[in-house]
């Protein structure tokens, strides 16, 4: 399968996907990595892996619509089966989301539906939660609101600060995200009328 990954930053999730493609755990190849930030370290990871590493700086565009149109055109050059959002920190227009419905997934650092949006670890700590985690979901027009595919849970320990929790959560992200990408590439995962179908069963 052909995969395009969108990033804005460090790209540690991207790295686990690249590694799993190389090892054969994921039956696919990352054809291109696209970043909206020119200085994203994930672009270095992409070059090292040997795929296209493209910067599309959102600041060069006059509107969100214009940026998303160019982003879509750039993605479509690679005819991907799957678009993976891996720390891509941009809100997407409904038109863009619609174009990849059922073919685009995201990872979010909370146990959705809890804490969509930013500062998830801070909010979990402030709420006194006993556990936190990450969610891989299909992307729908509602921000962080698409149907969940897989969650990874971690405990919140009494002395945890935001950074402690962030480290524990990202470690579980690195386990669950390549797993889901692998399932998709094996055609075990589809989105049908808003429901996730995994291996023939509705999740
Ligand atoms: C992760 O915490 C992910 O859940 C969120 O952005 C972060 C990306 O980290 N969407 P990295 O760039 O993959 O290291």
Automatic annotation (TrEMBL):
Database matches in Pfam families: Formyl_trans_N
Annotated active site: 108 (proton donor)
NCBIfam families reported for this sequence: PurN
Catalytic activity: N(1)-(5-phospho-beta-D-ribosyl)glycinamide + (6R)-10-formyltetrahydrofolate = N(2)-formyl-N(1)-(5-phospho-beta-D-ribosyl)glycinamide + (6S)-5,6,7,8-tetrahydrofolate + H(+)
Top-rank taxon: Bacteria
Record-stated family: Belongs to the GART family.
Keyword Transferase: yes
The protein's annotated pathway: Purine metabolism; IMP biosynthesis via de novo pathway; N(2)-formyl-N(1)-(5-phospho-D-ribosyl)glycinamide from N(1)-(5-phospho-D-ribosyl)glycinamide (10-formyl THF route): step 1/1
InterPro entries, A to Z: Formyl_transf_N (IPR002376), Formyl_transf_N_sf (IPR036477), GART (IPR004607)
Enzyme class of the recorded protein, top EC level: transferase
Binding of (6R)-10-formyltetrahydrofolate, residues: 64, 89-92, 106
E.C. number(s) listed in UniProt: 2.1.2.2
Annotated Formyl transferase N-terminal domain residues: 1-181
Function noted in UniProt: Catalyzes the transfer of a formyl group from 10-formyltetrahydrofolate to 5-phospho-ribosyl-glycinamide (GAR), producing 5-phospho-ribosyl-N-formylglycinamide (FGAR) and tetrahydrofolate.
Gene3D superfamilies: Formyl transferase, N-terminal domain
GO molecular function terms attached to this record: phosphoribosylglycinamide formyltransferase activity
Keywords: Purine biosynthesis, Transferase
Sites annotated Raises pKa of active site His: 144
SUPFAM superfamilies assigned: Formyltransferase
Residues that coordinate or bind N(1)-(5-phospho-beta-D-ribosyl)glycinamide: 11-13
Name listed for the protein in its UniProt record: Phosphoribosylglycinamide formyltransferase
């Amino acid at each position: 399968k052909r995969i395009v990954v969108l990033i804005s930053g460090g790209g540690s999730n991207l790295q686990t996907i690249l590694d799993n493609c190389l090892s054969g755990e994921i039956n696919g190849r990352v054809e291109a990595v696209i970043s909206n930030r020119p200085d994203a370290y994930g672009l270095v990871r992409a070059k090292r892996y040997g795929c296209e590493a493209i910067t599309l700086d959102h600041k060069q565009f006059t509107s969100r619509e214009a940026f998303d149109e160019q982003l879509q055109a750039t993605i479509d050059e690679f005819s991907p089966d799957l678009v993976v959002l891996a720390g891509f920190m941009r809100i997407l227009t409904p038109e863009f989301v619609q174009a990849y419905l059922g073919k685009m997934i995201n990872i979010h650092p909370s146990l959705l539906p809890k804490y969509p949006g930013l500062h998830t670890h801070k909010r979990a700590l402030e709420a006194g939660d006993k556990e936190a985690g990450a969610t891989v979901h299909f992307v729908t027009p509602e921000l962080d609101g698409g149907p969940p595919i897989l969650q990874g849970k971690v405990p919140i320990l009494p002395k945890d600060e935001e950074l402690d929790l962030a480290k524990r959560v990202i470690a579980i992200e690195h386990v669950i995200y390549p797993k889901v990408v692998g399932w998709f590439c094996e055609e075990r995962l589809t989105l049908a009328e808003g429901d996730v179908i995994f291996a023939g069963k509705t999740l």
